Amino acid sequence: MTLCLPGLRLRRIGVMSEPKSFYVTTPIYYVNDAPHIGHAYTTVAGDVLSRWHRQRGEKTWFLTGTDEHGTKVERTARENDMEPQQWVDQLVENSWKPVLETIDAANDDFIRTTSGRHATGVAAFWEQLRESGQVYEGEFEGPYCVGCEEFKLPGDLIDGPGDEKLCPIHSRPVEMLKERNWFFRLEAFTDKLLEHYHQHPEAIQPQSARNEVVSFIKQGLRDISMSRAVHNVAWGIPLPWDDEQVVYVWFDALLNYVTAVGYGAREGTPERDRFDSTWPADVHLVGKDILRFHAVYWPAMLMAAGLPLPKTVFAHGWLLVGGEKMSKSKLTGIAPEQIVDHFGSDAFRYYFLRSIQFGSDGSFSWEDLFARYNAELANGLGNLASRATAMVNKYCDGVLPEPGTYANADLALQDELVAAVELADAAMDRIDFAGALAAAKGFVDAVNMYVTEQEPWKLAKDDANAERLRTVLYTMCEALRAIAILHNPVMPKSMSTLWGRLGATPHLGPIAEATVASAGHWGLLPPGSMVTKGDSLFPRLEEVEE
User: Fold this and answer.
1) For the structural domain made of 366-519, what CATH number should be given?
2) Which residues participate in catalysis according to the annotation?
3) How far apart are CA 353 and CA 351, in angstroms?
4) What angle do CA 222, 227, 229 make, to 5 degrees?
5) Are 63 and 106 a contacting pair, CB within 8 Å?
6) Structural domain spans, the chain
7) Cα separations (Å) of 490 from 135, 283, 485, 544?
8) Which helix (H) or strand (E) holds 366?
9) Which strands, in side-by-side order, build the sheet including 238-239?
10) Are 258 and 275 in contact (CB under 8 A)?
């Protein structure tokens, strides 16, 4: 259900006559190992962004998936006495899809690069570029990192023992390769890319990422190999015009963003209609280590094909453990379930988006997670919810009372709510999750202070204060209604529970249908609603061992 709310002073969050299409993607994750919390971090960010835009009343599409081709997969499959397809199938079904349930991701689609729809779109794309003269045959010789599945420039490498050259990300020796390949005319798009980023500074975020990309382009682009020889890596999508070559894994993987929404489908089909109504992507969420692919190679490919470019590529930082980027190979990877099993999925989602400025590196520690959980969720939001529902049950037999005349303290709290909704929504526009949650927390703190100052437990001792008690109790519950909406994209399980305990569902519908705008409109929770109490939403926890 949607509510038409006259006079609400909020930017961009009114109900729209024609819902905007909002398309957000994660990178497709390289499937060769089990996911760690670094992967889950990106997926949660995409999920929260898509849920927020849904709660604006917008049509949304949230995509994630797996990258399944390349040298690393082929070699690992052999080491495990499996065919590559068998290897990736079991990884996807046993590891990658289950983690989406673990972290409560509500993705609309899951793309696999081994799927038929993807292969069809990839073949069509590169055939089009070949026919238009954007690819040509040549020889390549240079360093290759199997971990990155990337040809490296000599300047990218770091010195290792002896004369070894190492990948700066994996700290492992690169391999020197010489192959006959097909090349994409990347150099031809140097000026076009610079002009695009000059005209659209929002196209790469944060600013540090934009500066990095622009600097790289200004150094001069070179044509880049877009295929691999079958005799070196057979596990890939064959080139439609050369059966001795497969599409280089990155020039296969990047196309998932268009193949998933119907690129390559015939005109007049539902798949093609989806592409026409969904592309271009509003936001590509990527790790900063793959920024170059998404902000240089990918837009150049789209330019070559005459397709619109994504509106924003947002490069977040790394999750650090012990000062190093999280890595399975370095034994610093932490599985999401290790956290979720103890703290719950909502706390997992809240912690990583609240504690780390999206776009910057952030350090994870069990101690910080424990402290923030107890301070902000257990003692803050959770305690407020428990106090409010318990007092309505104790003093009003569980029936939400009719408020009396609002005092200055009540009106001030209502003003604080409008400001909090406005700040949170503006932060989400900037893809500033920490800022949005800080605004929401500020309002939670304000309500807790309100309760402390109004002392409803003292008001209840004197019948002369009955009207004031009813007003305070209603204000507490109505504030919680708004708090639930603001937190729902981040903590959908606990906020749905809170919504139910406030008795909101029979009158206002499911919380997922409550708009961001409605959070800032006071008085929507009807008096007479049945308020129930229950176990703490966020029970205090003892510190866990690392």
Assistant:
1) 1.10.730.10
2) 36, 39, 145, 148, 167, 170, 325, 328
3) 6
4) 125
5) no
6) 366-519
7) 44, 18, 10, 23
8) helix 366-372
9) 227-229, 242-247, 238-239
10) yes
Find, among 147, 434, 170, the residue nearest to 326 by Cα.
Answer: 170
Give DSSP secondary structure letters for 480-525.
HHHHHHHHTTT-HHHHHHHHHHTT-HHHH--GGG--HHHHTSTT-S
Q: 417-456: per-residue pLDDT in tens?
A: 999 999 999 999 999 999 999 999 999 999 999 999 999 9
CA–chain centroid gap for 397, Å, is 42
| Cβ–Cβ < 8 Å for 478, 412 | no
Q: Is 320 left (phi over 0), alpha (psi -120 to 50) or beta?
A: beta
The one-character DSSP state at 400 is P
Token pair for residue 386? 């428990």
Site of tokens 């069990």:
366
Its pTM stands at 0.89
Tell me how far apart the alpha carbons of residues 205 and 49 are, in angstroms, rounded to a whole number. Answer: 15
Q: Which amino acid is at 151?
A: F
Backbone angles phi, psi at 126, to 5 degrees: -75, -30
Residues contacting 224, CB < 8 A, separation 6+: 151, 183, 184, 186, 297
The residue ranges of the chain whose pLDDT is under 50 are 1-20, 328-331, 546
Q: Where are the beta strands (DSSP E) in 295-388?
A: 313-316, 319-321, 324-325, 362-363
pLDDT in tens, 2-16: 333 323 333 333 333
Number of other residues whose CB lies within 10 A of the CB of residue 371:
13
Q: What is the largest CA-CA distance in the chain?
A: 90
Look up tokens 């919810």; give the residue.
385
Cα–Cα distances (Å) from 326 to 37, 96, 121, 361, 366, in that order, read 8, 17, 33, 11, 14
